[in-house]
TrEMBL record:
Keywords: Membrane, Transmembrane, Transmembrane helix. It comes from Saliphagus infecundisoli. This is Uncharacterized protein. The chain crosses the membrane at residues 7-25, 31-49. It comes from the Archaea.
Amino acid sequence: MERFVQSIVAGGPALVAGLWLVALGGSIPRLAGIGLALLGIVGLVRGIGSEIRYS
């Protein structure tokens, strides 16, 4: 599987799981959710950004 597809596929669920943890509350789950959501965003941006070509 292409590397950019792996980044997108891993980033999407990580973002969703992180947002669920933030929504469920609690101090430690909320912090873990923020971190997981940030990692998901990084994965999505990395995967999408690697395929954009600027001329």
